[in-house]
Amino acid sequence: MAIFMKTLLFLTSISLVFSKHAAPDKNSLLFYKLISGPELAIATGLQYTTVVLTDIEWNELTAADVSSYKAVILGDPDMLNDSPLAIPVMNRDVWSPAILGNIVVIGTDPASHGGAGTGADQLMKSAITFVASDPKTGLYVALSEYYGYVDDTTVPLLDQFGEFRVRGNLDCYNKAHITVHSDAVEGLTDALLSNWGCSVHELFLKYPDGPGEFVPLAIAQDFKDTAFGIKEFADGTSGLPYIISRGAPPIKCGDGVLDKGEECDDNNTVNGDGCSYNCMIENHGGGPTTPTKGCDLCDATVGLNKCDITTGCSNTPYGTMCACRPGYRAAVPGDNIDQHWRLQWSIPGHEHRVYVKPGVVCDTLCDHWQLGAAGCAEVSIGVCKPGTTGGNTCP
Ligand SMILES: [Ca+2]
Ligand SMILES: [Ca+2]
Known about the structure:
single chain; alpha+beta; nine-stranded mixed sheet; Myxo_disulph_rpt; DUF4215 domain-containing protein; disulfide bond; signal; repeat
């Protein structure tokens, strides 16, 4: 019994240590005291429970503590040219792994441009709401002017998520442009982000940008110095990102049409189905978990063409494929993408066409064959990569 009691006491003390800074409720946001900034007042106004930790308390955080919050908010302390984030940097390997939800990183100083009705105020509101909206723990970081006078540097605070490089020492950029379609920019416009008397303090030269990772949320549009590597966007704009996000889909991503900068567009902004929320092909190089995504090509050479007689070997942006006659598909379920599929087209007009694996018969009328472009909508869209050769190797 004595041993049992001792064990119980020991376990209780462990759990007390481990839950010392857990969220008090399911609606809580976690702030770091030195830089709580105007974001703290905004979060309170948005009816979140706010918890502000001192240096010592922040140092005691466990990953489990962090996971119990809706989001971590590292706000803008305003008018600081040096980062006061030494403590969050020191234990970044503890709290970063708990951040599995939406992220917004802001390369400017909304605190100095805030106040009711301003774009800065709306940016903080929308970004906080967005990072707190994911069921998993999110992260909001304002880099303020920490790197405003540095040419090119890494961002240690974020390095658990990948390599980030920013640069300050910029001309005064005032023409901002939003490059996502997302709740993260709810209520924001280009005009609200522009003309802050220098809207941009840090540009992101490098950040993890693979499938499911970070995307530009807003850019310094028409950035002039091409030495930094200008990015072009699906809506025809160009520039360099100064606000980035994980979780906000790029503009035009998810509309089912393959646009500039998109590797794929499967008509959704969901990860894990072969085409990520940011329109990049998942699982490059295959592997056992790669979903089969059709895309089999045919050889157009006379005598080598293995397409069934009900189909024809036709050109597509992805290579030559066995095309069914308009309005027809194979006699298999619409989502049997190994046998038949439709394609993404950068220029609309062929969305109705169904393609099949060489040898597959195309003798079944589509559900709504008389509807033209929407006639074979029951057949899934294949996530194909241009230039693929050979059978079923895509993506
Ligand atoms: Ca698109
Ligand atoms: Ca998807």
